[in-house]
Design brief:
The chain contains 7 helices and 15 strands. By secondary structure, the chain is α+β, with helices and mostly antiparallel strands. A 3-stranded antiparallel beta sheet has the order 14-13-15, with helices on one face. Strand 5 and strand 6 form a beta hairpin. It is globular, with a radius of gyration of 23 Å. This is C2H2-type domain-containing protein.
């Protein structure tokens, strides 16, 4: 397989990385994208926040972050996304093709973005900076999760109770442990129940220290 040269500004297949937001675009689309960073080039304003877009279609994509609309669905699984590019990236997970190869270690990646992020681990490049502390990250999504530790924002909610978390994976783990239908360990003092004895013991120590007996559902 032909090796792919990578640096911090360009990637393969005539793709370029924006120096301002670090997103990757085809070379012919970069000029249009740069308009989004020009103050006078953003006539389309979001009705929900202060965001402004250079193009109406860009604004429509942004509005989906408020409405939760995900019109692009994978034909192979239940995955849905708000953007067509997100679906295109996801579809590569259903194939064995990994056309992007790291010149430093030979690691093969499915997308140019994955290769870019991987290569940054070799040069220790972390372009996404936290505005609240010295933390920085390779990927913007990692930074967004980190910032929630400062803001206290917990956007991922449990569909069965009031539990919420900064990360979706944490909520999924909570649902599996607390709402799987196999909750055999019951708290004798409140409605708490779970499927692991250690979780019940932790609950009792934190909330009902006087209780020493574990009640198990028959």
């Amino acid at each position: 397989m032909e090796e792919t040269p990578v640096d911090s500004k360009t990637t393969t297949n005539e793709r370029q990385e924006c120096e301002k937001c670090h997103k990757i675009f085809k070379a012919e689309n970069m000029t249009r994208h740069m308009l989004t960073h020009a103050d006078r080039g953003r006539p389309h304003k979001c009705p929900h926040c202060d965001y402004r877009g250079a193009l109406r279609q860009t604004l429509l994509k942004h509005i989906r972050t408020h409405t939760g609309e995900k019109p692009y669905a994978c034909a192979h699984c239940g995955f849905r996304t708000a953007q067509k590019t997100g679906l295109k990236r996801h579809l590569t997970s259903h194939t064995d093709l990994k056309p992007f190869k790291c010149t430093a270690c030979g690691c093969e990646c499915r997308t140019a973005i994955s290769l870019r992020d991987h290569f940054r681990t070799h040069i220790n490049e972390r372009p996404h900076k936290c505005p609240h502390c010295d933390y920085s990250s390779i990927q913007p999504g990692t930074l967004r999760r980190h910032i929630r530790t400062h803001t206290g924002d917990k956007p991922h909610k449990c569909p069965h109770c009031a539990y919420s978390s900064t990360q979706k994976a944490t909520v999924n783990r909570h649902v599996q442990l607390m709402h799987s239908g196999n909750e055999q360990f019951l708290c004798p003092k409140c409605d708490f129940k779970c499927n692991r004895l250690t979780l019940l013991q932790k609950h009792l120590c934190c909330n009902h220290l006087e209780v020493s007996m574990v009640v198990v559902k028959e």
